[in-house]
Design goal:
550 residues; alpha+beta; Beta-Lactamase; Helix Hairpins; 3 domains; five-stranded antiparallel beta sheet; 16 strands
Amino acid sequence: MPPTRETGPERPVAEPRAARRRGLLSPLTRRILTVNVLALAILVAGLLYLGRYEENLVETGLASLRIQGEIFAGALGQGAHATRSDGATGLAADVAGPLLRRLVLPTRTRARLFGLDGQLLADSRVLLGPGGAVQVEELPPPNADGLVGGGLLRVIDRAFDLLPSHKELPRYREQPSQRAADYDEVVRALAGEAGVRVRERANGALVLSTAVPVQRFKQVLGAVLLTTGGSEIDRAVRAVRLDILKVFLVALGVTVLLSLYLGGTIVRPLHRLAAAANRVRRTTGRDHTIPDFSGRGDEIGNLSADMREMTEALWLRMDAIESFAADVAHEIKNPLTSLRSAVETAARIDDPKQQRRLMAIILDDVQRLDRLISDISDASRLDAELSRAEMEPVDLGRLLGMLAEVHTAAPPPGRPALAFEERSASGAPLNVLGNEDRLVQVFQNLLSNAFSFGPPGSTVTVRVGREDREVVVTVDDEGRGIPAGSEERIFNRFYSERPEGEQFGTHSGLGLNISRQIVDAHGGSIVAANRVDAAGKVAGARFTVRLPAR
């Protein structure tokens, strides 16, 4: 359909979000997974650091190495001493070398013996043969993990290397011609004080060392230096990290499954609600309903119940609009039919008297149409205006008192008198929370209705007071009352009950309906009933308005 001034340019209907959503996991499920896995990963990363655990292993290794050093120093002091030509006691290198190698055989340590002059006397990894000195190095253990397993462990080791390690350590450097001055712990040992030191190789491996003085009868003959690699410490830390990693993988699997389950319990119902809402929006029938998840007892259940109530309210509103449109068409058609008939008749007759009579009918119908359209316009805008209106405290006693003064100031002839009674303890204000203009409209409609049905010489009585937590207003007249069974129907749109002698079309039949809408919007109620006298006869009608007190 081409655009018109009334419809404006056509706007494309936005593609529903449910149709645009794609992918294996929904965005909400991905967020749940990310948060849960990230929290677990941060925790595991903290556990994998193991800085304090590694320090404890180093301290234990140094303590064990020092005990070995004291044993070695005692053995060398007893078995490798010799008396030199000048009568002084010293260490015999030819005896100390084999003894040193025998001592380190059960261990994986390296032992070096330095004399008092700082010269290297013996090294457990150097063998003297016919061809000269031979350096002995221990071979690494065979790879028992296999090709695939070993490669995987190497990848894991590289990942572990990225974690923060121990603090910065001095670099271990071994000179081709070693002297005691190369190692500060040996210098201290030659001075009679044992010492320990931790260094680091170029590849990051730890080197633990201890130097112990070799003594005989409290005389320092030299110093023995024991060194060992940190491979045992690295393996222990690696084993703990692997155990933590295994636990992490299990926990990760459980976390992912629970996150998917949690995401499913949230996302699937939301998808169903969104799809149902989209179907309701795109279809004209009422075959599609919102799924009922109220049995869940959670926020999604509340959302489902609210959406069902909202959809039902929309259907009711659509029914009300349809009914209102039909009623409006019917009510407007009546004066239009009368107007058309009068116009057609006036065109066929020439009698001035009859033409004036028909013109009066036409004028009356036009006024009736004007009044009807004005009331219809007011009724159609009522909901929107009430939703935007500011609610403020309103003193109904003061409001009704002022309204009574206006109506009693200059009453028209033949209209019933008006009496006003305010029942308030200690003169306290009868406050309600509402829109003052609309509340005035309610009571003005009730007074107009009572005046129209009250016979001349009668009295319309307005009473206001407080009952428990409500402010109650009653409007009584002394007319013929409400027809039996019409106590509710009189609040329907376009319902009209004419007083005796009143011309047809004077009222649009919307006043009481508008009054009920206003009172309902204020959280109150309005009912109609007949009053009876002592003899049981109808003494008039009573309208009762109840509003929450503030």
